[in-house]
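>> received
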Amino acid sequence: MKRVLPIVIIAVVLLATLGVTWRLLRSSQIATNGNGNANTNPVSPELVPPGAEPPHVRGNQNAPVTLEEFADFQCSACGYYYPELKKIESEFGDKLRVIFRERPLVPPHDHALFAAQAAEAAGLQDRFWEMHDKLYENQATWTTISDLVPVFVDYAKQIGLDTDRFMKDLNGEPVATRIFQDGKRVHALNVNSTPTFFVNGKEATGDQWKPENLRELIRQALREAGK
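>> returned
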């Protein structure tokens, strides 16, 4: 199964944006699992691309606090964080909405891009979050398999997708474009590790990404919003 088109499109956009974004970014750091890197030179909001539109949103569309997550489906730290984030969403309820952004770390994660394609292909049938959950809940299984096509098709069946369309969309331009657009936002914001979180546009730096500290950032944002 060919997976050339999405990779080519993503590679082209990353190369094209380097000349524009290098002036806006601090020195790059090699991407690894887990977060903890402060963005000491934040980019002006008006210069940051919006990412894929519409974004993948879970929760109250009019919530006073927006938590934007940049993540990689193969990242073990992201897999660890997945149930914690579910708890956070439950705790804050209608006061919080979550936006997911694709940040596949390629390299070192050889399956990360294809997993992102699978999630975005599911999104074209309004099942992004179902595939998102399926990928994280089964991360320990699919990350060890060389041929992911039958595995992801099985996940697609389980969440009620039209599998013929899913197979077609996996390598289609709409999927590649969404990953491409999130990639432009990733580079403008200098997101070098996963998971990385922004709370109402402010990056969770240092140890702020950890669950209890992230909760405090959300509570602080709620206080600032008068909620």
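>> The CA atoms of residues 23 and 43 lie 10 Å apart.
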